[in-house]
Amino acid sequence: MRLFISNFKLMGWGKSWLLALVISLFALCSLEIFWRANGHQPNIVDDQRLWAVERNKVGKSSNEIVLLGSSRMQTDTSIKLLKKDLPDYSIVNLSADGTCGNAVLYDIAEDESFNGKIIIESTPECLLFGCDPDISQQFYVDYFAKSYNLNEAINRHIATCMQKKLTIIDPYLNLIKVIGKIIVQKEKRIPNYVTTYENRTRSVDYTKTDTSNQKVERVAHAEERYKQLSTRITSELIAQNITRISEAVGKIKHRGGDIVFVRFPVSGEHWLVDQKYFPRDFYWNSFLKKIGVDAIHFKDIDEMSKLECPDTSHIDFRDKDKFTRILLVELLKREVI
Amino acid sequence: MNFNSYTFFIFFAIVLAFHYSPFSWKTKKLNLLFASYLFYAAWNPPFVALLVLCTLTDWYAGKGVVSSNTKSKRLTFLLITLFVNIGMLTYFKYANFLLENFIYLLGLMNIHYNPPKLDLLLPLGISFFTFQSLTYTFDIYRKKNEPWPSFLDFALFVSFFPKLINGPITRAADFLPQCKESANAQKKQIAFGFFLLFLGILEKTVLADGLLAPAADALFNESGAPDMLSAWTGTLAFTGQIFFDFAGYSTSAIGVALCLGFNLPQNFKYPYAAVGFSDFWRRWHISLSEWLRDYLYISIGGNRKGAVRTYINIVATMLLCGLWHGASWTFVAWGGLHGLYQIIEKYLRTVIPESKIWKNNFVQIFLGLITFTAVSMAWVFFRSESFHQAFTIIRAMVVPGNGTFSIENYFTMLTFSITLLILVSHWMMRERSLYQVIHEMPWWLRSVIISVMLFVIITCSGEDRAFIYFQF
């Protein structure tokens, strides 16, 4: 068998590596300065490993609050403020964008070490179809159960440290994508309007982006999706979901924990479309009543319902603290916390 | 632990520090063995037991073969090791596949049997380390080698971490002699080793994952029918992706081993410049094709029993080659297609007379392009989720039509440009070796190349994906 190397006579490698390191360091520093000068900031990449780092915290504290749900939980809630106002609590964020928290709820319900509080951001769509493969968080649950280990954790911690410091490793600023955008759309990369933090929450600055298209697209997407989903609703499906969620809630409460379902704000046409396909009275009020669980709806809280969602679905980072405080007051009032 | 992960660099720094500390050679080998088990355990600790089982089986089977005084006893020891190694592979990799086919066959007889699917986790690299370990007993059985005197060396051979998960499939006869004397690499070997490590990472993270994977996914993750241009774009993208993904791992593995003073076999030799399919398999995954040739093809008769039997042996070997890659009929079809290609080539060689014209550069390039096109079309079966998808794509590649989806022009431009670069570079490097080219280069040019590599790895890496061959 032919081995890779024979008659090894390579010269001048020391000089080659030394100069290469100097050149690449210079080039990387220059690029870092360039991005920052153009308004870009380091950003954390939210992936299954970062989710698993959070999941690993569940059951480690006697006083814990687990946040579940989708992107609204990530963008609308300030964990910094929650930690400040609830210093005795450990806050774990297991929400993930584009998905529903049902699978994680069922997973935590089975976790005997957990007896804390769960705040789950949900919608009628999630209550009924949250386990559909395209919007289920089962992918995260499986990764944590089967693949997450010490090696993955260390890797992720190092990646987080690097991502906090450097813009050049942000996938948003990946040069292949940046050059592709210039070639295809003749546009240069503008600073990202979404900032992700280590705790997996996000701040969205809608002044940095044009929301008019986003509004139209979101509403159109929601309408198309709801139209399809509404044809699948049967009394059997409703009963199945009520039973499954009730069982999970029962297990959590049985261990001394508690759970509250929260409908986060949406605005304008988005709300109208929601109501058209999933009327609140039937798909939220009576559904959760049958489960026998505490629920908060943004329309029931005057201050919350007045919050504006610039893209119809998420609030701007400037309203984040306000929203979190309103939510916290409501949770305290209901003695969930 | 991936070569392109942060933890690998920490791990490797520690391994190098130990390896170049003033310990005895035996202690260094123990360190390497421990590091290799740790490397494997970083993925799933309990599966280290499989490595140990594999090591013990072949170690004692090798001894047993030599100490046996009759042919049947020798054969018994060989069968024991085959049973353990292939049994392990079959259980973890093919159990569900066999079960599915069994259920299907029963279904044909109107017997409805519905057992639950086995929830098995495929141990990383099991196809590689079992094949490596088998070479030891096979060679002793064939009286090509003697049992190795040191168990430590043998255990290190089976589990040596650079080649453990994705090859190159190294033979005992190539690796074990390197364990005899202290394998401290020279400084320039370490420097070249790091060059190879980063070159491999560049191939994987930038070329495979960053540039080509999105176009390949755009074709193979869709369920509809593509238009003709999109079918070619996605197929060529996967053709490039799988090369950079796998060759990238091999290059890094060779580099890492070289830093530790070990020389691993070459696994790729510019395969997309192959002229003919036998030539392709002399250049693609060389360590596997040579393994299959020496331990399977020759064992079942090779070309010693007439033309028809040779053709049957080629197809049987290639079908098993396909099955080795994955537990699915689409992989078998991919292997079968390569078997068919080789039979056609072999047959044409017997009917077309030798002529100078075949050596003409333009004819060679033309034949090379035919080979490349046929190889690319075969990759469709390798990557497709089902035969339906594969045939839909193949049909779109040969029959013009509108299709139900198309791939963005940007990906098409990118894929065709990279494909052209691959073909030109492979053709230019066809009869040369990388270290020859690097050796002839002025030192400052090497610097520029290394700095570009490092810069591009950091700023252009694609989405984090596992190496494709990890699943095999």
Low-confidence stretches of chain B: none
Helix and strand string of chain B, N-terminal first? HHHHHHHHHHHHHHHHHHH
Helix content of chain A: 40-55%
Rg estimate of chain B, integer Å: 23 Å
Output mean pLDDT of chain B: 90
Tell me roughly what share of residues is in helical segments of chain B. 55-70%
Oligomeric status of the shown chains?
heterodimer
What would you report as the Rg of chain A, rounded to the nearest angstrom? Answer: 23 Å
Percent in strands of chain A:
5-15%
Chains forming the largest contact: A-B, 44 and 58 residues
Biggest β-sheet of chain B, characterized?
none
The class by helix and strand makeup of chain A works out as: alpha/beta
Number of helices of chain B: 19
Shape of chain A: globular
Number of strands of chain B: 0
Give the number of DSSP strands of chain A.
7
Whole-Å distance between the termini of chain A?
Answer: 69 Å
Low-confidence residue ranges of chain A: none
Query: DSSP helix count of chain A?
Result: 15
> How far apart lie the N and C ends of chain B?
16 Å
Mean pLDDT of chain A: 89
Characterization of this structure:
The complex is a heterodimer of chains A (337) and B (472). Chain A is α/β, with parallel strands linked by helices and 337 residues long. Chain A has 15 helices and seven strands. Chain A has helices spanning 13-37, 48-55, 71-76, 79-85, 102-110, 124-129, 138-146, 150-165, 175-185, 211-230, 235-254, 268-277, 280-291, 302-305, 320-333; strands at 64-68, 90-93, 117-121, 194-196, 202-204, 258-263, 294-297. In chain A, the strands form two sheets. A five-stranded parallel sheet of chain A has the order 2-1-3-6-7, sandwiched between helices. In chain A, strands 4-5 form a two-stranded antiparallel ribbon. In chain A, a hairpin with a 5-residue loop joins strand 4 (194-196) and strand 5. The model of chain A has no long low-confidence stretch (mean pLDDT 89). With 472 residues, chain B is mostly helical. Chain B has helices at residues 6-19, 25-41, 48-67, 71-108, 126-141, 151-159, 161-164, 172-175, 187-220, 228-259, 277-283, 286-297, 307-325, 329-351, 361-383, 387-398, 409-428, 434-440, 443-460. In chain B, helix 2 (25-41) runs parallel beside helix 6 (151-159) and helix 9 runs parallel beside helix 19. The longest helix of chain B is centred in the first third of the chain and has 38 residues, at 71-108. Chain B is globular and about 65 Å long. The two termini of chain B are 16 Å apart. The model of chain B has no long low-confidence stretch (mean pLDDT 90). Chains A and B meet through helix 1, helix 8 and helix 9 of A and helix 1, helix 9, helix 12, helix 17 and helix 18 of B.
